[in-house]
Write a structure and sequence with these properties.
With 195 residues, this protein is mainly beta. The protein has no helices and 16 strands. The radius of gyration is 15 Å and the shape is globular.
């Protein structure tokens, strides 16, 4: 983890947390999450395949913040990957799922642990379509009270939800999919809202 500059409540374009995927130092991986120089924007990237995950404490609540990161789904029979945020040390909190299956959609979901979650209930079926093998930039904005959370894919609004509850300062990258799929993650940044 790299903490940048002094922490203040002012809106900033400089991230207070930045992870460029050159190392997993500061992350806890209970599975085989690694980095690879063969992927990234630019390389390297964190790679979390089916069922693999790694988590870290970003030292601050995600309330009143903007989260930005790059993701690319791994081509497979179950191209799924998750990014957890606002979680406690056991993974209870929130995630955004990226789903590359035909007629399946990406969006927010509640999590009970690093390995247990609900299916996304946001956005509507016309939003959140992702394709395997393509890099996307994701931006999630969360207001200070958690009553409004929105997400963007390559700067295009995808959906929102009301009633987000932050359970802690932990984030995670997760391969989802039982043994297949997963994703590459790079350039994970937390900013004071708004970008």
């Amino acid at each position: 983890m790299q903490v940048i500059g002094a922490i203040s409540s002012a809106v900033s374009t400089r991230p207070f947390y930045f992870k460029d995927a050159s190392t997993l130092s500061g992350w806890t991986s209970t599975t085989s999450v690694t980095t690879t120089v063969l992927q990234g924007r630019p390389g390297p990237a964190i790679v979390a395949q089916g069922g693999q995950y790694a988590y870290t404490n970003v030292t601050q609540s995600c309330l009143g913040k903007t989260v930005s990161f790059d993701i690319k789904l791994i081509e497979s029979g179950a191209p799924l990957a998750n990014f957890y945020f606002g979680c406690d040390i056991n993974g209870r909190g929130q995630m955004i799922r990226f789903d590359g299956r035909t007629a399946s959609y990406s969006g927010f979901a509640a999590t009970r642990s690093w390995t247990s979650w609900d299916a996304p209930s946001y956005p509507t079926v016309s939003q959140g379509l992702v394709t395997t093998g393509v890099w996307y930039n994701v931006r999630i904005t969360i207001d200070k009270t958690g009553t409004d959370i929105e997400w963007y894919l390559n700067d295009v609004w995808q959906g929102s939800m009301i009633g987000f509850v932050s359970n802690g300062n932990y984030i995670a990258v997760h391969g989802d999919g039982a043994g297949t799929g997963g994703g590459y993650f790079d350039n994970i940044k937390f900013f004071y809202r708004d970008l």
